[in-house]
Amino acid sequence: MHSTLQDIRFTFRQLRKSPGFALTAILTLALGVGANVVVFSVLNALILRPLNVPDAQNLYQIARNHHGWDTQSYPDYTDYRDKNTTFKGIAGYAFSNAGVTIPANGSQQSTVAQIWGYEATGDYFDMLGIRPVLGRFFHASDDHGPNSAPYVVVSYGFWHDRLNSDPRAIGSVIDLDKHPYTVIGVAPDSFHGTELFMWPDFWVPMVNEQQLEGSNFLTERGDHQIYTIGRLKTGVTPQLATQNLNAIATQLAKTYIEDDKLDAHLIRPGLLGDIMGGPMRSFLIGIMLMAILVLLAACANLASIFAARAADRSRELAIRLAIGSSRWNMVRQLLTESVIVSLVGGAVGMVIASFLLRVLSSWQPIAQMPLRVAVNPDASVYAVALLLSLASGVLFGLLPARQIWSIDASHAMKPGASSVAAFRRLTLRDLLLGVQIAICTLLVTASLVALRGMMRSLNASFGFNPEGVTLLDTDLGLAGYSDDQSITIQKRMLEEIAQVPGVTAAGAINHIPLGLSNSDADVYRPDTTDYRMSNAVTDAIYYSITPGYLQAAQTHLLAGRDFTWHDDDKAPSVTIVNAAFAHAMFGDKSAIGQHFKRSAGHIYQIVGVVENGKYQSLVETTRPAMFFPYAQDTHSNIFFVTRSQRLRSEITPSLQRIMHNTDGSLPYTIDSWQQSLEFALFPSRAATAALGVMGLLAAMLAVTGIFGMASYTVSKRMKELGIRVALGAQPLQLMRAALARPVLLLLCGSIAGLVLGVMASGLLAHIVYQATPQDPLVLLGVVLTMTLLGTIATLVPARRAQNVDPARLLRED
Predict the structure, then answer these.
(1) What angle do CA 589, 591, 594 make, to 5 degrees?
(2) Prediction pTM value
(3) Cβ-contact 458, 647 below 8 angstroms
(4) d(Cα 46, Cα 44) in Å, to the nearest integer?
(5) Cα–Cα distance, 399 to 126 (Å, whole number)
């Protein structure tokens, strides 16, 4: 202990004597540790840490084996719930939005806002084991058929912000879509539902689904809209539970032959199933690996600095050996110095990371939805930060410490002892710098690939043109209108919007492509009588549109005609399909006039073909799509698509006036279509931002590493350079002698890193639109970036080498 304290005191004296070295080492490690803490905190919050409910490790979501089938129908849910033998309980939930009206001072107040929440089965809270802060939760015993449980549980945030934290709110009545609901409970502040991104405002019993959504999926076995989650019994493995569920599914498929692809598998809940969870897990693991590479680059940089410092102290260390100090004592002192530097650097990195994580936790990426990610660091994050700091200290401390065993005390103490020979062979510092440059080039390549993909996404062909379009989003169901009542009001509103000065085209659609919601259906040939899923020719995403939508969206009509208002419920059922649908169903034949059936068996005639587009995500493969007339496929929710040559701010007052005249209590949002693409662009932007930060950190580490090597090389060879100048060496020859090795290491490391970047960046294609490292601009960008970094890093050492004064150097010797 006494020796350790002596080493610690000596370390602080040494660091005080070299503040530049200490500051460089601490900040370098702080960058590496801080980046890892931030990424690990996100990984921990979204992937590693279970949901914030009791016994969360035994919770599983029940999904289907087919990709994208992560939801179940309500009848399937009830069969799984009642017939399984491996779960303590199974519950279901679906997302819902509603217009809320809160009474105040004995009078009805205008609708406060559009809010988002869960429709949950009666056993939802009991299965999770959650207890309310106030009041009670609803239970299965409250369900007595459709619309039989007019109860609402509100979130702690809703109770605090909108109900003023009033305990008397329990028992009060609020209106959801003009239907009265009694507030029976307040959820805990720590509970935000069973999806990590979605922080709901309320929970209502699912049996009230018809009131809130205007539909009734409770009896439709083919309508898969609910997420199903269950808690395993003690001692039951996921494999055994999966076998039990599939036995039930096999029996159901025999009974309900139209649902012949019914099966089940278990996945971890919290990330909207595997549709979002799969890419999210892959991406976060990839970013974590890149963060570890940043830390390794930082360690390589520090190891190189410490090795150079140990070489500079070779005479001091040789004297200590000569007067009786053991090599082990000197190794221990160097390790103490590196560990102290690493702990201080780790602490600084943790402080920086904590600030960034607080900002990230308060960030709401999409204003229209309560999307948030709680990434506050917990004990495991602090433990990882400490472990990384200690491991880094030992790693970059041990490598220079090995120099102690190769010190020749008699040679090192000789005046004028030169180490020029060492520069003529490959050293440990050379290898460390080469590895560091390769890692940094890999990260720069990945960041440029993401940036290039982001640029492509902003200029991609979506099958519609969002520029110059204003969206008015509303839902007449929030004011209690049925779908059938809505069509008349929507038609009148659309006519008024088309008459607004400056509007060149106007139409409407129930869900915008690349938006938050989409629906798809199986498609059959017109002579099909057996509607099993396996008999479907294809499945296609579908929308309801009004006349004028194609012109407003600038979706090109390739063949046939557009809809008219005569295509109503009294006219033959017609549809417009995209080119991918036409090819999948009819090959090279013309699709105009052809017929097909949807899963319900109804026959539709194709009257138009439009261009392909992007519907669910930017990275999706081309998929079939159908468009139905709004008058034949009515919905209360609607997006009015208004194309105008005027600014959005100039036509917004007119749209607001139309909404006020229609129903002043209706909540609505007015945005540009480009702003509404934030949800679709969010993965690409997040990937670009994360990889951009990694690339920036890598660039900083590359500059410091090359600068350190170049400065050390020039410093050690000053006398040799002075002699060369005295003998008539030209500036170019002098530069080659001084900087050949750092430049060669930069070239070799950059080539290796570029190759690794090309091999490892396939992961980005799942997140970033058309991300490819074979892009000539990406390759050119990497070359130019590394050249620029090398130029910046060697500029000062190069000037120092060119300004060498041989007379002064010889006098000093």
Answers:
(1) 110
(2) 0.71
(3) no
(4) 6
(5) 57
